[in-house]
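Quick question, first post here. What does this chain look like in 3D?
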Amino acid sequence: MSVMRVRPEVQATVYDPASGGYVALLPGVEFDSADAIVKANEWAFQSDAVAKSTPRVRSVSVEQATAAPGEKRNR
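> Answer (accepted):
Ran it through. Tokens below.
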């Protein structure tokens, strides 16, 4: 059994026949290749080998725009 990852361009909610509920497919989340969700939604997955070969985007720090409680901001 191999690992499958949700494709980077996919953000979807799909029905899980095993639990009767819905599952969010978010980029990079791992599933087993034998999972019913993978078999029913092959379009949303790629093999782990392909996922590891694609470049990853680094996150950057974001400026805090609001003051914390009790903190005064300089203008």
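Helices lie at 36-40, 48-53.
The longest helix spans residues 48-53.
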